[in-house]
Design brief:
With about 375 residues, the protein is α/β, with parallel strands linked by helices. The strands form 4 sheets. The chain has a 7-stranded mixed beta sheet. The protein has a two-stranded parallel sheet with strand order 1-12. A hairpin with a 4-residue loop joins strand 6 and strand 7. It is globular. Bound molecules: 4'-deoxy-4'-aminopyridoxal-5'-phosphate. 4'-deoxy-4'-aminopyridoxal-5'-phosphate binds next to helix 3.
């Protein structure tokens, strides 16, 4: 355990923050940049906060190489609200949009979209327990967009590259954004709840190509103004009070990633970390994985033990070790180790040694 008696949190989110970021928050808490107050206490219209917002956008733009044709929005409501906001802002009622049903959140996104337009299931791995990323084969040619979930948090699968279909692509990258390189130009829109690699709960980031947004007049009263992209862009994400503290935490995280060498370097570390754990899953009889190996996520690693009893034993031993958040997603069971950016290689190796030790005990 660290000097602060911290546990190692392998939870899927809200997730661990890098220690230097927490220490910086601690330092700034009572008096941010000589303003005499914390960011939590600051007016969102003050120049201090407006500077934080602008700088955060610029840092994110640089880190993710976001082209000028895209807008960055800092919103509330979680990735879940975007399941509705996206079709409401981009698709007309009589237009069709295709959904890849690759997991729990993909299914939710699909169901929400159906209320705004003609949402079509174009590839689906539900019947196989979502164990793989289903391939998009001959999608209808009149689709306005295709929606994918880049990284399936609950399942442990991920896209390794953006599928090329000739149709604009929208992706929920909640659980891998800033943890691996994402080529923004491959997408019409990317969105993410921040509470994994982007900081804390309360902030949702939307990166959207400007020319695809329907006008507010066209959308009329189908949704409230706080959901209308056109109005939000005009107001610089500030139709109402934005999640100020969460934006500031994202700003600090961007600095930390920059110091680590950028997203490309972070991805290399994340690849190594995940490989350490996958090697143990593959080597030890105690662990099994039904996930198609080519679709394995580097962020959320899922596996099973032989029975419920052993799973409980694993979790209780993990708890004694100071590891938290390893219980699998509620509808799926088993174990899930989320190795987001803040989990260090050393902490991953501690999990690996623990898994080896437990495997020999559970034989
Ligand atoms: N999409 C994905 C891929 C997620 O992992 C999650 C939450 N874990 C959500 C959507 C829902 O996000 P929120 O709680 O921010 O609405």
């Amino acid at each position: 355990m660290s000097e602060y008696n911290r546990k190692i949190n392998f939870g899927a989110g809200p997730a661990m923050l890098p220690l230097p970021v927490l220490e910086r928050i601690n330092k700034d808490l009572f008096n941010y940049g000589n303003t005499g107050m914390s960011v939590m206490e600051m007016s969102h219209r003050s120049t201090f906060f407006m500077d934080i917002l602008t700088e955060t956008k610029n840092k994110l733009k640089k880190l993710m190489n976001i082209p000028d044709a895209y807008e960055i929005l800092f919103l509330q409501g979680g990735a879940t609200l975007q399941f509705s906001s996206i079709p409401a802002n981009l698709v007309r009622k009589n237009e069709k949009i295709g959904y890849v049903i690759s997991g729990v959140f993909a299914t939710k996104a699909f169901e929400a979209a159906g209320k705004f337009c003609d949402a079509i299931n174009i590839a689906d791995s539900t019947k196989d327990n979502f164990d793989y990323i289903p391939e998009i084969k001959n999608p209808p040619s009149d689709l306005k967009y295709i929606h994918i979930t880049g990284n399936n948090t609950a399942i442990g699968t991920a896209y390794k590259y953006a599928p090329k279909t000739g149709v604009p692509l929208i992706a929920d990258w909640s659980s891998a954004i800033l943890g691996q390189e994402i080529k923004v130009e491959d997408y019409a829109l990317i969105y993410a709840g921040a509470q994994k690699n982007m900081g804390i709960a309360g902030l949702t980031v939307v990166i959207v190509k400007k020319d695809l947004i329907l006008s507010s007049e066209e959308i009329k009263d189908t949704i409230p103004d706080v959901m209308k992209y056109e109005k939000l862009i005009k107001a610089d994400s500030m139709i109402n009070t934005p999640p100020t503290f969460a934006i500031y935490v994202l700003s600090l995280l961007c600095d930390w990633i920059m110091e680590m060498g950028g997203v490309c370097e972070i991805e290399k570390i994340n690849q190594e970390k995940s490989q350490i754990i996958y090697d143990i899953i593959d080597a030890e009889d105690a662990y099994t994985s039904t996930i198609n190996s080519k679709d394995r996520s580097i962020m959320n690693i899922t596996f099973n033990l032989k029975n419920e009893e052993m799973t409980k034993r694993f979790l209780s031993l993990a708890d004694e070790e100071g590891f938290v958040g390893l219980k699998g997603y509620k509808l799926r069971g088993g174990i899930r180790a989320s190795l987001y950016n803040a989990v260090t290689k050393e902490e991953t190796m501690r999990l690996a040694s623990f898994m080896k030790k437990v495997a020999s005990q559970l034989k």
